[in-house]
Amino acid sequence: MMIKSSSIAKILRYCSVFRSIQRFESSTTTSFPPESPASPITQQLPLIVSRQIEYPHIRYPPLQAWLETLGQKRDEKLGLVDLHPSIWQTSPRLDILYENIEWQKTYKKIDWAYTPPHHEYPNMRTKPWPQKGTGRARHKSRFGPQWKGGYKVNGPKGPTSFFYVLPKEKRIEGLCTALTVKLHQNDVHIVDSLDLPTHQPTYLQELAEDRFWGPSILFVDDTDIMPHNIMFATAKTEGFTLMPVYGLNVHSMIKHTTLVLTIRALNKIEKKLLHALHSYDTQKDQPAAPDEP
Amino acid sequence: MPIERGLQYLRQMQRVTLKNLPMPLEKTEKWKREHPDENTMKTIMSKKGPISRSALPPYGIDPIQAEGRLPWILTVPKEPYYEGVEEARQYLPISLRTLQRLIDLRRINPARPIDLPVLCNTKLFSIQPDQRQFGLQLTDEGADLFSTPINLEIQWVSSELATAAIERCGGILTTRYFDPVSLSALIDAKKFFERGEPIPRCDTPPLNAIEYYTDPKQRGYLANPDLIREERQRLAQKYGYKLPDASNFSPMFHLRKDPRQIFFGLAPGWLVNLKDQTILKPKDNKFETFYHS
What we know:
The complex is a heterodimer of chains A (293) and B (293).
Chain A: H1 5-29, E1 63-68, E2 79-83, H2 85-88, H3 94-106, E3 110-111, E4 160-161, H4 168-184, E5 188-191, H5 201-210, E6 217-221, H6 228-235, E7 240-244, H7 250-255, E8 258-262, H8 263-277
Parallel strand pairs in A: 1-5, 5-8, 6-7, 6-8
Antiparallel strand pairs in A: 1-2, 3-4
Chain B: H1 2-12, H2 29-34, H3 38-47, H4 49-52, H5 72-75, E1 90-95, H6 96-104, H7 116-120, E2 133-139, E3 151-154, E4 156-157, H8 160-168, E5 172-175, H9 180-187, H10 189-194, H11 210-213, H12 225-239, E6 271-273, E7 278-280, H13 285-291
């Protein structure tokens, strides 16, 4: 029996609904492990982190997100963080995400396919067979385009580069859109720091499993010198990635299910994006495209 | 609310990943088919249509000019003599001779102030606000025989001589702007009161008329009264007559309207009930601030 494409889409949608129901049931049945007295938080709770937001938005008030911690396994909130609406509440243009990801895939692509042209084949001293009297088609050389092993007309020549630079506005808009999409789908978590009590990878895996952070997580800090414990834990775990702020990109954010930002990384990201949004570049500041080979 | 609606959809959607990103509309096959690029267009034009069949170009395109690509209408220069005629304000003429005749035949009482409803009640002028007619203009025909002191309020004065003719007899002239809404109330006042609507407040003149109605030489209703007094003296010296003493005037000659007021004795916002012979006045603070000048 043939199944139409629309019915497949319907079935997929039902599957996603069932998956979410299962997830909801598992979240209700599982109970948190008892809190270990070895790692209590010494600070007074709740600790509200006030952040001064530059370039306040004309229309929207700042958004708010929980400040969490990786220091203990139990999900205890440390406070609230203000988020800038012009970064975290932009129009969810998924086509701009598509363009950014397409650019990230293509700009480093090089086509190495090469077929030698006619003049690069060796000259044949003799014809394959005489011109007249054999009853076969007349040929001068075995390397004609109709021969097997011959040259190809208008074939691929040499390494060709597909490099191009997306306009800066689109890159900035792509980053803002990716952050918005992640936040409004409950996939962004802001933590105080990446310090872990142990270096064992099971601790981080169980923590991610208890908090429903999904199979792949992107940890972002402001510097590229990370704490030893989380380096060890993520190196032994498949799907966990550590990244500094200067390496943050749209492809990685969409690829990983969850994005974990430290508060220092958040400050740096917002500062850089706001500076880009409220300034303009001339044509000279744009990186020039390289010459054709 | 486009952003909030988009974010609402985003919260109900499944997680945005690399697999389920939508393609931009411009990159879909359907769009490319409906909007072919330049090279595709050229190949189509070389195969199909009047150009490939060496037929005559479409109507409106001169085959000699610009190789048949420039429309004929673009080769002929424009001469817009009557540009802006439809937007101009029209004023129906009323001469001083007509005014004197109306006074002599007792169709107008010169002891009371003469304004637009008084002149319209003679049923001699049919003003149509929807044809961009903004009232009456005073012309200087019969300036020598005009000899009645009146308190006249008119929309436009076409010549200085008409102003001099009225002020020579000891009259007072003011030019006054009415917007189309209040003009429709003034043309037929009885019909307007029967409609049972509150009296509209007069709008300020448009940008190109503000200069005229704040000019003391034109006796504008927004001009400074002290400057108007000076200009009256100057005009009297120019035409060689003596201004009568202002203290001998009857109190009717000192009556002026508020810039927001359109009827004498009736404030904007009031409602006249002809059947019960009563006037209803708004007491709410909101209405008072709206109709306040």
